[in-house]
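PROTEIN–LIGAND DATA SHEET

This sheet pairs a single protein chain with one bound small molecule, zinc ion, given as SMILES. Inputs appear in the order they were entered. The predicted three-dimensional arrangement of chain and ligand is reported afterwards as a token string under its own label.
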Amino acid sequence: MPSTTEQQVGADFSFKELRNRIHACLEENNLQLKGSWSILRKAIFIATSWILVYSAIMTYGPDSFWIAAPLTLVLVVFTLAMGLGVMHDASHRAFSRSQILNNIANLTLTFMGGSTIIWYQDHVISHHGHTNIPGKDPDIHTNGIFRFSPSDQYRWFHRFQHLYAVPLYCTKALIWVWYEDMNILATNKYKLRGKRLFMLFMEILASRASHIMLFILVPYLFFQSWAWTAAFYLSHWLLFSISMVLIFEVAHVANCQEFFPEQDKLEIDWALHQLLTTANFKTNAFMVWLVGGLNQQIEHHIFPTMTSIHYPLIRPIVMDYANEHGVPYLEYPKFRASLAAHFRHLKNLSKRPAAA
Ligand SMILES: [Zn+2]
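PREDICTION REPORTED AS:
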């Protein structure tokens, strides 16, 4: 456990007390914890725009690179907005009070080529339940490729990790689609049984079929060229992948967050653990919209079932509560600053530890 934790916060830091303040604030503003019209409107706008932009690429893209390239960039923006600002909320059942609407919004992940069952196990259960705990948090488990936590075993190639991070981050989504999900199914990583295991098998089949159809077969039918199809496929997924990975990594691995020793259950207060392991970054209104409030991962981690639309409203309450108890509220002034901190962290841990 980090040495500073107990002395700084004292025994009176309480998630329950913070939650009461947040619930009082929502009540005062006549807001519900889950769902809102604005996130529903946003989802409809993104889904409609995605279909229109995709159709435009297929219709006009084959005529000119100068039409296909910028439209593909716009498509990446809408894929990201859908993943981070709609599907992510839905996976936490925060998109709507209706579970049917959450399931529909969550299906956008299947549609793109991912698995909602694996995302739920990996992200909602493991990552959120064990943030920055090596061996438990899948977001910092890289099979030794990166040294994210100071307790990770040092390997000689880590000296280059700040250099190979970018190309590897670019391929993360493709590794999910073409290897990781199938490996999770083959090894039954989550020890699923019966109907749940069968559903995972069916979802992986359906999501790969949808991915191949949307991003390979249909584009080939329109472009009539494997080179153009590959260019469309790779540019969309490599750009999507690095953007998504960096948004998630800067929140927990950026030179200021703490890493805890392996433990099955959190050994300190829930909200305190999230404050010590998570950082926000300030940004402009477009980025807030694009990342679905994930520039405020502190609020998301303390209240994962709250719709992301409310994060700016509750930020001052969380910040005040942290200040009252002497707990740092980690926030970078810009996205650029959090990015620099992430790569500084990789560089710091690229050095061989003195005791090794
Ligand atoms: Zn989450």
